[in-house]
Amino acid sequence: MITKYFTKVVVRFNPLGKEAKTARLFLSSIPPTQRLSGLSLKNELLNGASTASPLVKVTFKDKTELELNPTGITFQEVGNFFDRHSRKLRLKETIEA
Q: Which residues pair with 67 in a beta bridge?
């Protein structure tokens, strides 16, 4: 997954829910060096009584925000969803250089 263009990441999930594996894999795919170099990362754990829905939300360097519900989808699908926009930014960066 291309995480170079992420500026803000918000992940909200129930650690005992179906979405936990996908959300944790997503969080683990963000390199530690990027976490230290300005990426704003917010992780919120939900309990069983919570009414909030699970969420993975990413803000990119061009201020585009994409979000999805990680319930019922795989990590590969989440990666593909966010990579589509990252590839556009990489192409734009390559053209401008």
A: 57
Q: Give the tens place of pLDDT for each residue, 25-51.
A: 999 999 999 888 889 999 999 998 889
CB 23 within 8 A of CB 70: yes
CA gap 81, 94 in Å, rounded: 21
Alpha carbon 61 to its chain's center: 13
Q: Domain boundaries in the chain?
A: 6-96
Alpha-helical segments (H) within 1-97: 20-28, 32-36, 75-96
CATH of domain 6-96: 3.40.30.10
Those residues of the chain that have pLDDT short of 50 are: none
CA 65 to chain centre: 10
pTM: 0.91
User: Cβ(37)–Cβ(5) under 8 Å?
Assistant: no
